[in-house]
Amino acid sequence: MIWANAVSLVNARVAAGDGIAESIRFSSRVLSIGERPKHGDTVLDLDGGFVVPGLVNAHDHLELNHYGRIKGRDRYDNASGWIADMAPRLSADPVLRNGRAHPLIERVFIGALKNLLSGVTTVAHHNPFYPELRRTMPIRVVRRYGWAHSFLLETQPAGARGEPGGDVAVRWRATPSDAPFVVHLAEGIDENARAELPRLEALGCLKSNTVLVHGVAIDEDGWRRVARAGAGLVWCPASNAFLFGRTAAVCGLVGGDAACRVTVALGTDSRVTGSLDLLDELRAARDAAGFPPETLMRMVTTDAATLLRQPRAGRLCVGAPADLVVLPRLADQPAAALLDARRRDVRLVVVEGRPLAGDPDCAPIFQARKVSPRPLRVDGARKIADSGLVRRIAGSPIAEPGVSAA
Ligand SMILES: [Zn+2]
Q1: What digits encode the pLDDT tens for the residues 212-223?
Q2: Which of 16, 18, 95, 251 is the most buried (most CB within 10 A)?
């Protein structure tokens, strides 16, 4: 049997807890932070590069990332208008028809690849947990969750195989109180969107495990009630701007008045309305609300993990799975570097100690972890990636723009 070696990343700036450490050792788990390499470790000098926790994307629809952005008019008042515009196009528009004809396993792979290349190691998928998500997903997909699509699609198809969006109250009751219950809510700016939070409350479904996605129409008084319930928000500013020209009133929720404080995580939504990936979404969030980089970084690490009840995700600590991302020194602080990074800049993505994609100079890490790399191109940059992953990319009937087996 050939054992994989431990890896020590040295001369690094490791974002661990509130501080910065100079090194991190890992095998499948984080072995130590800030300690010297041990005999037998494979040691890589990062030349001041940052190590941050694997990112957590709190909202995506993994099967919907290969179409690009679609809408039928410039602005909507409610997601219902967009849904109504899309319905006839699903069969009439050749791009949508062909996109839907691909096997679901290929569609969700593109969703996973989108996330992986941007440094996401844990993603929350919104829709049924398809059997296709059990097999060969390169990153973690949150498995323990309750969901309903929205009040808009309770009895109408929402999933890839026409699964209904689900009765919100029934689904909420079926969700254990220690699992997140995720639902699109108040996705719009009109009276109907404003009525959804009171409706959720009247059903008794606004509780501490409730995770609202969008919340664009919720007003200050509504946010106070959300805060009082201990519920959270997944904020998708790029998608909101695309559909409605505005987003949720998040500024009051983070850091300000305690009575309004709500845990906010960032989500990309799918590319049908959302951003290219979570790195892009971070910049959309900064532009929409002006939060400092540290606040935004929490929304894709610790705060996202809190909302999704994933206590081992979103942080680097000894004993936790080695899910991490290496970034070049694009700025002085890790959060600022994250805000500057595009996916071609990401130096390495590691899931449970397994390097999946990175720069060619990370080859010794692949070797140490017994992962055989193959060349890959990402937006013109030369990369290497797990050969199994590159084979899947090369064999995929769906092309991911900018990505090819080199
Ligand atoms: Zn969504």
Answers
A1: 999 999 999 999
A2: 16
